[in-house]
Amino acid sequence: QRLDLVRCYFDFDGRPAERLAFAREGLARADALDQPRDAVHWLHCKAGALEVSADPGEALPPYREALDRANAVGDPYLRADAMTAMSGLLSLRGQHGEALGLLVEGQQLFEAAGRGDRAAALQIDIGLTYRRIGRLDRAEELLRAALAGIEAGDPDLQDQHYSALMQLGFTLHEQDRQAEALQQFEAALAVAQAQDAPFAEAGARMGMAWSLIPLGRFEEAMAQIDRGADVFTAQGDASNQPMLDHLRGRALAASGDA
Q1: Which of 30, 49, 152, 246 has the most beta carbons within 10 angstroms of its beta carbon?
Q2: CA-CA distance, 248 to 161, in Å (whole number)?
Q3: DSSP for residue 204
Q4: Is 168:142 a contact under the CB 8 Å cutoff?
Q5: Dihedral sign, CA of 84, 89, 94, 95?
Q6: What CA–CA distances, in Å, run from 137 to 110, 134, 142, 144, 187?
Q7: For the segment 170-228, what is each residue's pLDDT rounded down to a tens digit?
Q8: What is the structure's pLDDT at 101?
Q9: Is 216 left (phi over 0), alpha (psi -120 to 50) or beta?
Q10: pTM for the complete prediction?
């Protein structure tokens, strides 16, 4: 069962429908065997498969169910894991207050469970949420602190290098500091390429496009959008199509070719 859980998270890249079917089967087995902890993780995997569907909002019910079940189990780590798993989608959907509350409580629970690594990593997610509610000064402060820790070799933060660079890039972009933002996105692209992470590389290219357009570098922006779109298509990810269309529209409108 545990090996199957690992497979659910890692063996279905670019095949969300297969991942969803696998997660549903695993959840049914966990329930039949009365394994509530495993059921929480199967629900996370199910939600993850739904998050890359055409309507990522379909992932919210399984995330909420996972949190309810984790609360029933009562284990602090499991509860924190469920809170943080759901927070990203909530923030993306504009439910920033609930997301921030879950992140802060999750951080405290991870600390109580002796998982300082997970607690430290949440600093970036908290920074992202502050960015989305318009507290760009606070977001930049948290993200630069995280990057300083990464550069200093903090072992609890090394896996977060790409995320910290991307979020700082968007924070600077929203302050119209486009040249600085582009530097962060380019650094994130280098990290993704070094890690051989195509999906992350595509995300960095989208970030670059966001800053290249206001800098007037329209052809470069379109090239980055097209390269990112190829990766999303290969990965079977339809959730980013609205963003791709929006970026293309912005580039064409700004260049006068619309």
Answers
A1: 49
A2: 28
A3: H
A4: no
A5: negative
A6: 26, 9, 9, 11, 21
A7: 999 999 999 999 999 999 999 999 999 999 999 999 999 999 999 999 999 999 999 99
A8: 95
A9: left
A10: 0.76
